[in-house]
Structures are given as structure tokens and as C-alpha cells.
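This entry is set out below.
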Amino acid sequence: MRSAPPLVKTDQTPDKIICRVLSVAYNKEMYQDYVYQSIIDMLVGYHKSQLEWDEYRQKVEPLLLDKWGKILKECRANGFLMPEICFDDNKQRYLRFNQIIQKKVLSADRKYPQEQIKRI
């Protein structure tokens, strides 16, 4: 089954954006980078805390928040959003972003096409 094309023309993938922002090489070792894993720890901690983001973010180091903000901003500009924490076959944690795609699905009033989100 063919997938619909992306809604936003991407210049970079999330992995390449993350590598550039964190200044790490684009290879399997990027997933073991301390800052990369700290971002994942931050997201896991936020999820487990059940606090509002504004309250939780006060406990996070400003440098980590700055890097995470840059990653999210650039990923969003390239059509990637809603990151998820996933595990590979070796139980290594990594981030997976969803991508906005174009699909000719009409809204309920059948006037406007809707965008859909595809997991990548």
C-alpha cells in the first residue's frame, strides 16, 4: 500500500536534526549519547510525574530544555511532530516522530481536505 506524500517538504529527518543540535555523529552511537538519553529520561519523568508541563519543566536543566526546544522547533518546521519513546530489538530507547502527510480525505462538511499523521 502506498503512503500519501508528506504535507511539508522535509529538508532533514528528525535523526539528522537531533545529531546536529546535539553535535553527535549520525550513526548508531547517537542513541547512546548522554544528552540524547537525558532528553528521553526527561520525557519519561514528565509522563510518570503526571504534572503539568509548566510545573515539571522547572525541575529540568535549562540547557536540556534549550536543546529539546530547538529539536522540536526544527522537527515541526520539517513536518515532524508528536515524538514517542520506542525500544529497538536490543531494548535501546530512541525517539520516533510522526509525520504530517497529505491525504485527500474530506472533512465532515466535505469542503476542506484534512491532513493526517503518519508514524515513521
Q: What stands out?
A: Residues 4 and 103 are 6 Å apart (CA to CA). The two ends are 15 Å apart (CA to CA).
